[in-house]
Amino acid sequence: MIPGTDTMIAPTSAFLRLRRTSVLAVVALALIAAFALAPGTASAQSVPTKISGTVVQGTPGSTVAAGLTVVLLVVDEQRQEIISNESTVIGTNGQFTFTDFLTGPGLTYRIAADDGEYTPSVDLIPGEDSFSDVELTIYDRTQSLDDIRISTYSMLVPSIDRSQRLMGVLGVISVVNSGDRVWIPDINDPALTGLDLLRFNLPEGFLDLSVESNMPPGNVLEIGTGFALTNPLPPGEFDILLTYVVEYEGDSLTFPLRLPYGADQVRIMIPEGQGEVVGLGFGEAEGAIIEDTAYSVVDGQNYGRDSQLDVEFSSLPTPSLLENTENFFDGRGYIVAIAWVAGAAMLGLLVYAFFFAKSRGASTQQATPGAYPEYEGLGRSEIVETIATLDKRHDSGEIEETDYAARRAALTQAALSARTADEDSDGDSVAQPT
């Protein structure tokens, strides 16, 4: 990898991408504004004939190792391409010199010290920079995160798509290494976890994460709770810029913002009238105007290491009734609903047919008086037994439907007119069924 190039992770999901176009467009504009391009190459350039400088040790008590290599990269600015590279070994007191290299209009130069995982570099533009006193600083290494701290953690919500309940987020995190050694993770450790890396958590369910920084080259690792960086972090302050989209439910979103390295300041900005934000240590919301847009701003200061802010977004925009209907049909949820209703109706019909059709069919038949003399004189308990026997014969196919319905109707009428108590052969009375 070319020293000094930014690190970026490509979007991780295409889910709802078409619906996020307006949100991401605003985020992209903010991204461009935050990372404005540097001035172009000067039109009138003096052609350098020599590049010289020194490699120095930034960790007190340490020295620059002999045999360190310094690399010169010649870059064609118009094509954004490295067209030549040269190298040399440092001499006494860390000095180096290049005299044989390509020159010409539109060419710029990058000088880098090849110090293993960390390669400090300097960019030189003819006519704007000195080519005779270049200084490259190297440091001893450390894997301790004790000197790492967040200076500012800013979250800007440029836009919210209420119809899909999507919130686009632009974050800028300023990281400070206040020590005198370069922090480098041991990525060769087979037991490496996110705890060993420079890590940051994001809201649950984040999508389309993109990360850039002006830190030395490294990699971005997306993990379940957010992302982690393998970039070396030398002494000084560096910025990490990130964008992502998060989907919220109802009109609220919970973000357990964790600060493993602490933070001097945390600031969250959301368009006025589109939500409220509260969190640990936040003061009252204040107004601010950014690019002609009014924002509500909350912030807190001086958070210790391993703090958790539990940020709560509430009163976020929600879809209108029309938008809810459109989303319902766009998502084809109506197909599921229709299938469910149809299934429930069919189940109801089956239940009705199974439990009530026979009795209803029987009750609608008009019984002819005296048509079944064998039923006359039966007591109510005998009628019940006869109906049960009749039902069994019908279910087994021994009696036709018409005859069955007529007989059942006759028995029903007989039950209504039966005496309220039956005398058995011994003269005992049988209680009337209730």
Draw up the topology in text.
Layout: H1 21-34, E1 51-57, E2 69-76, E3 81-89, E4 95-98, E5 107-114, E6 121-124, E7 134-138, E8 141-142, E9 148-161, E10 166-177, E11 182-183, E12 198-201, E13 207-213, E14 220-223, E15 226-229, E16 236-247, E17 253-255, E18 258-259, E19 263-271, E20 276-278, E21 286-290, E22 293-303, E23 307-308, E24 311-314, H2 321-330, H3 333-364, H4 380-395, H5 401-417, E25 422-423, E26 429-430
Parallel strand pairs: 1-7, 8-11, 9-19
Antiparallel strand pairs: 1-4, 2-3, 2-5, 5-6, 9-10, 10-16, 12-15, 13-16, 14-15, 17-24, 18-23, 19-22, 20-24, 21-22, 25-26
Which structural traits does this protein have?
single chain; 434 residues; alpha+beta; Immunoglobulin-like; 3 domains; four-stranded antiparallel beta sheet; 26 strands; 21% helix; 34% strand; disordered N terminus
Structure commentary:
With 434 residues, this protein is an alpha+beta fold. The chain folds into 3 domains: 18-35 and 144-319, Sandwich (Immunoglobulin-like), CATH 2.60.40; 51-139, Immunoglobulin-like; 335-430, no CATH class. Helix content is 21%, strand content 34%. The chain has 5 helices and 26 strands. The strands form 8 sheets. Strands 13-16-10-9-19-22-21 form a 7-stranded mixed β-sheet. A 4-stranded antiparallel β-sheet has the order 3-2-5-6, with no helix packed on it. A hairpin with a 4-residue loop joins strand 9 and strand 10 (166-177). 25% of the residues are buried.
